[in-house]
UniProtKB/TrEMBL annotation:
This is Transcriptional regulator, RpiR family. The keyword DNA-binding applies. Residues 15-91 form the HTH rpiR-type domain. Keywords: DNA-binding, Transcription, Transcription regulation.
Length: 293
């Protein structure tokens, strides 16, 4: 659930820090939420307070502040303070604008586009480059690739499947939970299982990931929440950052971020294996020409 962040808070906390905080907040323990709430309400105090002073005001331990700092991507509390003190002009303030029932047509289309642009920008900024590199290596060396998602995440998985299959890779996808479990159980060491879940809490996807792990496949998850059940069962976590909410709670911007992550992985594979995959791709492109007028 996206946090309710006002403009004053957004101006006082670096945008990347806010993005990370939104991605982990729901998974924080009670004491950690006390520390996070203090950060949200009194960022100026945190930026100048010692860890002892901050812990006393938040009503938590100093160790809790260290844990929160690390979950936000910092080495520790001093690094969090230092980032809060920075006033980088290159770190612009952006708030996700939720669509309201009384918004007019032009406002709605503007908000839809802006939320997608923001999600892609934030995803690029929070994406762990080391984890991403591991994902590329695993996919380049994979004997078999399986993509898994349900609901509209299944459409993302299907899109990835069509790209990988067109290049001649050994790839499987299914939106059926039973087939997902069966396929995951038939994976082996060296295979790659790509799980896609915005929340990281989709039970069927998490269950399939657990079976793939038992099969000793490498688990790559694409999720908005890096401390989710899915992420905890993954070897490699590729985090997206889409936090806008519309009237009904479903947004396409989260899927666009996932699609871009998959697309970039696909392009990396093509470039690294251009000699082999280029030939396959040329044959596939020639074959589908028959369906064009």
């Amino acid at each position: 659930m996206p946090l309710d962040i006002d403009s004053i808070t957004a101006e006082s906390i670096p945008h990347n820090c806010l993005v990370r905080l939104q991605s982990v907040y729901d998974s924080l323990k009670n004491a950690e939420k006390k520390a996070a709430d203090l950060l949200l309400k009194q960022p100026d105090f945190i930026s100048h307070a010692t860890i002892t002073e901050a812990a006393q005001r938040a009503g938590c331990s100093e160790a809790t502040l260290v844990r929160l700092s690390k979950k936000l991507g910092y080495a520790g509390y001093p690094e969090l303070k230092a980032h809060l003190l920075q006033t980088e002009s290159s770190d612009p303030v952006h708030l996700y604008e939720n669509i309201e029932v009384n918004d007019d047509d032009s406002t709605i289309v503007s908000k839809v586009f802006q939320s997608s642009i923001q999600a892609l920008t934030d995803t690029l900024n929070v994406l762990d480059k080391k984890q991403y590199g591991l994902a590329v290596e695993a996919l380049c060396n994979a004997q078999k690739i399986m993509l898994c998602g349900t609901g509209d995440a299944a459409a993302v998985a299907q899109s990835g499947y069509q790209k990988f299959y067109r290049a001649g890779l050994n790839v499987h996808v299914s939106a059926d939970p039973d087939v997902q479990l069966i396929a995951a159980s038939q994976l082996a060491r060296g295979d790659v299982f790509i799980a896609i879940s915005h929340s990281g809490r989709t039970k069927t996807v998490v269950d399939a990931a657990k079976y793939a792990k038992i099969s000793q496949a490498t688990i790559i998850c694409i999720t908005n929440y890096p401390i989710s059940p899915l992420a905890k069962n993954a070897d490699i976590v590729l985090q997206t950052a889409a936090f806008a909410e519309y009237v009904k709670g479903e947004v396409m911007s989260k899927r666009l971020a996932e699609l871009c992550v998959l697309e970039s992985l696909y392009v990396n594979i093509l470039l690294r294996q251009s000699d082999k995959l280029g030939y396959n791709l040329d044959k596939a492109n020639l074959a589908v020409e028959i369906n064009k007028l």
